[in-house]
Design brief:
Distance between the termini: 44 Å
Number of strands: 12
Bound molecules: alpha-L-arabinofuranose
Number of helices: 11
Strand content: 15-25%
Helix content: 40-55%
Structural class: alpha/beta
Order of helices and strands: HEHEHEHEEHEHEHEHEHEHEEH
């Protein structure tokens, strides 16, 4: 039997046989851009034919893209859902077409978990909790007014990182969240909202710490803090989530204090799960959890910055 015939007979799909459609949210943050870049790299490594649709932050564009991938008959669909609700009908269409859907980095709310094969995400509640616990430890018994920059309204990481942080500071009545508003995960909105917080809180003098649901908003806020004549990282503690290179630069400059890492490589485990499912028909675990690691100024942020920059995404 020739090799080609043997492979056809075994019916095992090599990764190179796979065509995957990826409905990406957009490019709101450095982390998101890194995730897109890593997805391309991981697809290329495996010879997967990858089609990416950029939804420019709109759920309706994601739904259209998913319908387009169904019409093309792709082997699998990856979705990074911009918000948590409103996915059931389009995912039912994918299910009817027997196309497995994998959620990347964000989860959805549905009464029917059979609508997706697996979700590759971190524990976003845990991330918020780690940030809160770090702050509790750092502040000690001192009173501390916290301002919070939330991610995109209705998105799973914004909902969960808020919840987790509140759990992390629970029982420590000296720590209080005095203001909380969305900065939509973007640098520009993070700066704008922080300017408002500073204005409302005695030129920023009544704020002890900033908790941002991602590093990009923290970086924008750091700029606002500096423009208000205060020292971020010293006058105001700064803790956020993602661990993108720019926050390590800010940590090395003493302008940010801590970040919780979110790997941008959600696609590698997702491609492997899809291929294993195609080969064996056996469903992967419903949740493929990625790691979350806390970095502080004690972790040689300049070295981490250079290492992360060296990865090229
Ligand atoms: O879903 C992951 C979050 O989305 C990242 O923390 C944030 O930077 C992004 O835009």
């Amino acid at each position: 039997m020739s090799t080609v015939a043997a492979v056809a007979f075994a019916g095992a799909a090599s990764a190179a046989d796979l065509t995957v459609g990826f409905s990406q949210i957009g490019s709101e943050s450095g982390w998101r851009a890194a995730e897109t870049a890593v997805t391309k790299i991981e697809a290329e490594k495996r010879g997967v034919d990858l089609k990416i649709a950029d939804a420019q932050q709109k759920q309706e564009n994601q739904i259209k893209a998913i319908r387009g991938f169904i019409a093309q008959g792709v082997d699998g669909i990856f979705v990074a859902p911009v918000v948590a609700t409103g996915w059931d009908s389009v995912l039912e269409e994918a299910k009817d077409a027997e196309i497995p859907v994998i959620l990347l980095d964000r989860t959805i709310e549905t009464a029917n978990p059979d609508l997706y094969l697996t979700a590759v995400t971190s524990d976003t509640v845990h991330e918020g909790k780690v940030a809160g616990e770090w702050l509790v430890k750092t502040v000690g018994d001192k009173p501390c007014n916290i301002v919070e920059l939330q991610g995109t309204v209705g998105s799973s990481p914004a909902i969960n990182r808020k919840k987790g942080f509140e759990e992390g500071i629970a029982g420590h009545d000296n720590l209080k969240i005095i203001r909380s508003q969305t900065g939509d995960f973007t640098r520009s909105k993070g700066k704008e909202v922080m300017e408002g917080f500073i204005k409302a809180e005695n030129g920023g003098k009544d704020i002890c710490a900033l908790y941002a649901h991602n590093d990009d908003m923290a970086v924008g806020a750091i700029q606002a803090i500096k423009e208000a004549g205060l020292k971020p990282g010293t006058d105001l503690l700064v803790v956020s989530i993602d661990a993108v290179p720019d926050i390590f630069k800010a940590m090395a400059d003493g302008e940010a204090n801590a970040t919780v890492e979110l790997t941008p490589n959600m696609a590698g485990p997702a491609f492997d799960a899809l291929k294993a499912f195609k080969d064996s028909g056996k469903a992967p675990p419903k949740w493929i959890q990625t790691e979350s690691k806390l970095y502080t100024q004690a972790d040689d942020p300049m070295k981490v910055y250079e290492e992360k920059k060296g990865l090229g995404y």
